[in-house]
Amino acid sequence: MFRIALVAHDEKKAEMIEFAKKHQTVLSQCELTATGTTGKLVQQHTGLPVTALMSGPLGGDQQIGSLVATQALDMIIFMRDPLNAQAHEPDIAALLRVCDVHNVPLATNRQSAEILMAFVKLHIEGSEKNANRTS
Ligand SMILES: O=C(CO)COP(=O)(O)O
Fold it and tell me: Keywords, A to Z (predicted)?
């Protein structure tokens, strides 16, 4: 099962919700973790179970980073706001860095996120086909 983290800055929360709704079927077959507010919103709007950690500015990005460092996540969908400065910029930079350190796929915009979702979908469909063949 893919372990995916969802993170969205305030200006990108609506886009994250729309993204989660669009990919609800695929995401329902994944284990979802998120920063606090993103997680609550995705859960509210989709009904998907999401483990919501601390809010980003309060340490949520660092918690996601620690999951990356311990190989507890397979990919991160991070809808970043490139136009507004964030108070917790150092935490964000650290999260991006730790993904590169551990070679964990990280999408920081919608189109990259779509490509990662297409990969996850293909993978899930492939596993289902294999399961049907062997059963
Ligand atoms: O700030 C964030 C990522 O840097 C996101 O945090 P929230 O999901 O709690 O808004």
Answer: Lyase
Please, what are the domains in the chain? 3-134 (3.40.50.1380)
CA 122 to chain centre: 17
- H/E element holding 32? strand 31-34
Distance CA 21, CA 17 (A): 6
pLDDT tens digits for range 100-134 = 999 999 999 999 999 999 999 999 999 888 888 86
Give me the residues paired with residue 76 across strands.
5, 106
Flag whether 55 is marked binding. Answer: yes
**Could you say which of 61, 74, 81, 100 is catalytic?**
61
Q: Which one-letter DSSP state was computed for residue 19?
A: H
Ligand 1 residue neighbourhood (C-beta within 6 Å): 7, 9, 35-38, 55-57, 60-61, 92
Mark whether 61 is an active-site residue.
yes
Q: How much is the pTM?
A: 0.96
Average pLDDT, the chain: 96
Q: Give residue-wise pLDDT tens across range 49-58.
A: 999 999 999 9
